[in-house]
Amino acid sequence: MYLRDIISFSLRASLGYPVRTFLMLLAMAIGVGSVVILSTLGEGARRYVIGQFSNLGTNLIIVLPGRSETVGGPPPLLGITPRDLTLDDAMALRRSSSIRHVAPLTVGAAPVSAEGRQRETTILGSTPSLLPLRQLEMAQGRFLPEGDPTRAAPICVLGYEIKAELFGAAPAVGESVRIGDRRFRIIGVLSDKGESVGMDMGDIVIVPVASAQALFNVSSLFRVMIEASDRDAIGRAKEAIAAIIRERHDGEDDVTIVTQDAILATFDRIFVALTLTVAGIAAISLGVAGILIMNVMLIAVSQRRSEVGLLKAIGAPGNRILTLFLVEAAILSLVGAAFGLILATAGTWVLGRVFPDFPLFMPLWSLAAAVGVALSTGLVFGVLPARRAARLDPVQSLSRR
């Protein structure tokens, strides 16, 4: 028999039992679709996190007060700082040629009120460098002006959500708001930047860093965000930061320096492992589909005993019978995989409509892996029924014994 004849024979055999064939195709389609959709969700989650960190800016370095080795916990939540990270420390970092922008940060929460409306929100103290460093955009007015960062100027920039809640459609620039027990003049309103690593830039008020320190009665910084002059300068900037802080802190290495690339690399490894784990769990459904193929084909062997007996009676060797059943299993696996890919594409489209802001991406490796595993599963679980068919006695098969 030629390959064309073998394929034609297998197709006719499959179409001869539509219910059996439908069940096998459905099981394989569900298995392949599950692997691809879950892999797509895992890859989408990885890209979402990377996109969130990319919104912070480029070539970023973050300096945190305290070292994680101090108490074995992640700073600044659990670290014990021998010396505070101060505004003077942050300003001293400007002298490195590898550093383009330095933005010290002080963060707290306080009630913000204007025109009889009030709400609690996040207050972020920083300097004019925060605008280019975080790639922020202004919808109205201007950002914090250049000047002495130690001067507590009574000015602020509102996030677009805070502006809408306090002033509605009325212009806010030039008006005053009360933050805590202090009054600030509004000089600008941020445009819609969305969330960035959990911080909603619309639901925030930005004030000069010295004003925030006076408002919350603190002298230390929450952290310092730094932009290196270019990607190649990140390593030099990190070394310069460590050297400057060590010099100012009496030789103590009491800060933690984290680069944006290091954070992204860590998240990337986590999500790759998570995606592979989830895809592996979904692949179990392919094993279930393979068991179904084996069981249904074992039944098919008993149903087609006379057909097998006739083939063997006219001289078909056992390996030819084995080939016929394996080709049938392979065809069913490939067709089921094709339906599974269609199912995965439709599911991804629906998820994209339900969650339009989530970056769904179907990785090519998941398509190839799902089809490959489906074919392998069909062949592996099709061997036992094929071998049983190949060993049938032609006389007993024709006599239906």
TrEMBL record:
The keyword Secreted does not apply. One of its GO terms (molecular function) is transmembrane transporter activity. Keywords: Cell membrane, Membrane, Transmembrane, Transmembrane helix. It is a multi-pass membrane protein. It is found in: Cell membrane. Belongs to the ABC-4 integral membrane protein family. This is Putative ABC transport system permease protein. It comes from Desulfoprunum benzoelyticum.
